[in-house]
Amino acid sequence: MKSFNNIRLVPSALALVCTIFVLNGCADMSRQERGTATGAVIGGAAGAVLSGGSAGGTAAGAVVGGVIGHEATERK
C-alpha cells in the first residue's frame, strides 16, 4: 500500500520540477518578451474558459493575448 501512495506523488513532483525549469528560463528575458509570454498565458487561459476548453479557442486566446502583451510592453 505504501508504493501506491508514492505513485500519487509523481505527477505533483513532475509539475513542480517543470515549473522550476520554466521559471528559470524566463530569468533573462527582456521586458517585452515577458509581456508577450504573460499575455499568451493569460489569453490562453481566457480562451479556454470562453470556448469551453476547445483547443482552437485556447490557441486563439493565446495568440491574441501574446500580441496584446507584446504591444502593451513595446520598447520605448
Keywords:
76 residues; 82% helix
Brief write-up:
The protein is mainly α.
Evaluate the radius of gyration. 17 Å
Q: How would you spell out the order of helices and strands?
A: HHH
* Uncertain stretches: none
Number of DSSP-assigned strands: 0
Whole-number mean pLDDT: 83
Number of domains: 1
Gap between N and C termini:
60 Å
Overall form = flat
Percentage of residues in DSSP E strands: under 5%
* Broad structural category: mainly alpha
Helix content: over 70%
Q: Given the structure, what is the number of helices?
A: 3
The description of the largest β-sheet is:
none
Describe the structure.
With 76 residues, this protein is mainly α. The protein has one domain (2-72). The protein is 82% helix and 0% strand. It contains three helices and no strands. The chain has helices at 2-25, 31-50, 55-72. It is flat. The model has no long low-confidence stretch (mean pLDDT 83).
Q: Topology, please?
A:
Layout: H1 2-25, H2 31-50, H3 55-72
